[in-house]
Amino acid sequence: MNSANNSLQISHAFLAATGTKIFRYFEDRIPHNGPVLVVSNHRSFMDAPVLMASVKRPIRFACHHYMGQVPVMREIVTGQLGCFPLEAPENRQQGFFQQALKLLQTNQAVGVFPEGTKPMVDFTEPNSLGEFQRGFAHLALRADAGSATVKPVEDLAILPVAIASLAEANSSAVPLRLLSLFDPSEPLFNQNGWHPLVIYHRVGVLIGCPYRITAKERQQYQGKQAKAVVADITGHCQTEIAELLRQGCY
Question: Which of 33, 40, 190, 236 has the least CB density, counted as fewest CB within 10 Å?
Fold first, then answer.
């Protein structure tokens, strides 16, 4: 069994063990082949296996730097689920682009949580959505355009997905200051309190419409409108996920 299929089977086994029931909506929108950039909201450590089980294919998630530093967690997250931890801050952006591009060029699915660490550390309500960081839009545009040394990723689809918790249990995992030992660069860990632990009992997964980079956007990214086109793609995905989340939570 290869590691990709292994991560998918582990996800199914984990969700069966927790008794989590998943309700999928708009499944016909899922691209089952080719390179996909899955973009989703993020509140729980369960989000990665929930998305893999819902999309029905392995997804290589970019995850927080500390997850690659903590013993046991590192083996589960990177070894079993196939996630790739972000590097230390000074190399984080370039490392993310390099690893994600390699995966997309081999027609794999890459997963990103543009809200970052904050909704995982500060407990948020199921229907809330934080501001999206723009790294995934830069990644999609770079992958689509290619470069002198990197060939373009053909037929790349950005897939917005909303995870809407319908019933969950909340508790605490570990003290935040303990995590700062593994990643002192994360300011969110430099506070009192505990890392929330959100366990889904029933969860809705709503699939958005696949988004593909247009020739006009590709051209704009090479010119003065680069920031604007990145903001437009980021805003499009955030708006679509917010609307899907509204449908799923009400």
Answer: 33
